[in-house]
Design a protein that fits this description.
Keywords: ATP-binding, Nucleotide-binding. GO terms for molecular function: ATP binding; ATP hydrolysis activity. The chain has 290 residues and is an alpha/beta fold. It folds into two domains: 2-205, P-loop containing nucleotide triphosphate hydrolases (Rossmann fold, 3-Layer(aba) Sandwich), CATH 3.40.50.300; 217-286, 2-Layer Sandwich (Alpha-Beta Plaits). Helices cover 37% and strands 30% of the residues. The protein contains twelve helices and 14 strands. The strands form three sheets. Strands 6-7-8-3-9-10 form a six-stranded mixed sheet, with helices on both faces. A four-stranded antiparallel sheet has the order 2-1-4-5, covered by helices on one side. Strand 4 (55-60) and strand 5 (63-64) form a beta hairpin. Helix 5 (109-118) packs antiparallel against helix 6. The two termini are 40 Å apart.
């Protein structure tokens, strides 16, 4: 559905994205992860057609995405607006829903009101009077109810309390089952949201350092724990992403296929192998190393 080929983007002399290539396929939920300032929002704005890719290509159904009317109608980017934009918006929530119905072909107004009831959002309130949590809820409702082929949430959960976030995750999964489409979710709440993801993309240094299915990604991250000397020998030649030592015990986290030989040796020497949670894997792959 969306294909990125050799995408580069910079602000002045600052390079943000470098030779990024990837795909977003119909019917999948993508988790987009990365530390602050690595280019997640820039990439999402390019995918939404809000910016033009000067180098490389972004295609929607095999045609250039920027200024493509089909893409404009199919892709929505939902995010928390800044305080100035929010303060200047005197519209009532219900009017925002009705306006979305006018401009979005598949917007389900009844579903939007149903979600508002579930989230305890008063649709008679004006946008500039909403708390940040309810502003986030409004953006979530607009994204879910629009039923666009490509729905992008850029850290839209900011300000939402735990019960509201849990409801958001549940509704997102239900929507994907009822009306499959591409969801792209940018988040720092990795451990809380990883159950949503079919695919995971991690941005670091302007490129995807991980671009895998969720299952493949977590299967590649393992920690070997046991006798320090044995663990050191077994992990030679592997991609080590984290090490911890306590006395004669060593824990080494590696990324990549372990191989049968390593697994057999671990079993022989009583070296424990544990799969890394996605959040730990994300932190290890992106932490700065001196």
């Amino acid at each position: 559905m969306i294909t990125i080929k050799n995408l580069c983007f910079s602000y002045g002399k600052t390079q943000i994205l470098t030779n990024v290539s990837s795909q977003f396929e119909e019917g999948k939920i993508y988790g987009l992860l990365g530390r602050n300032g690595v280019g997640k929002t820039t990439l999402l704005s390019l995918l939404a057609g809000a910016r033009e890719a000067k180098e490389g290509m972004i295609l929607y159904n095999n045609k250039p995405l920027f200024e493509n009317q089909d893409a404009i109608s199919a892709i929505g980017l939902f995010y928390q607006r800044n305080d100035l934009d929010r303060d200047m918006d005197h519209s009532k929530v219900e009017d925002v829903f009705k306006k979305a119905k006018q401009f979005r072909e598949h917007f389900d107004l009844d579903y939007a009101y149903e979600l508002a009831r579930k989230f305890n959002l008063k649709t008679s309130k004006r946008m500039n009077k909403l708390s940040k949590g309810n502003e986030a809820v409004t953006q979530v409702i607009l994204g879910l109810a629009s039923r666009l082929p490509v729905t992008i949430f850029d850290e839209v959960y900011l300000g939402m309390d735990a019960p509201s976030r849990t409801l958001f995750y549940s509704e997102l999964l239900d929507e994907q089952e009822r009306f499959p489409r591409v969801f792209i979710v940018s988040t720092h709440l990795v451990s809380e949201m990883e159950h949503l993801f079919d695919e995971v993309k991690i941005i670091e240094n302007g490129q995807f350092t991980l671009d895998e299915s969720y299952q493949t990604a977590v299967e590649k991250g393992n920690t070997l724990t046991g006798d320090a000397e044995i663990v050191s020998n077994l992990t030679k030649g592997l991609k080590v992403i984290r090490e911890q030592v306590l006395g004669t015990t060593k824990a080494v986290s590696v990324f990549g296929e372990l191989g049968e030989h390593v697994r057999e040796q671990c079993n022989t020497h009583k070296i424990a192998i544990s799969q890394m949670p996605l959040q730990d894997l994300f932190i290890a792959l992106t932490e700065e190393r001196g």
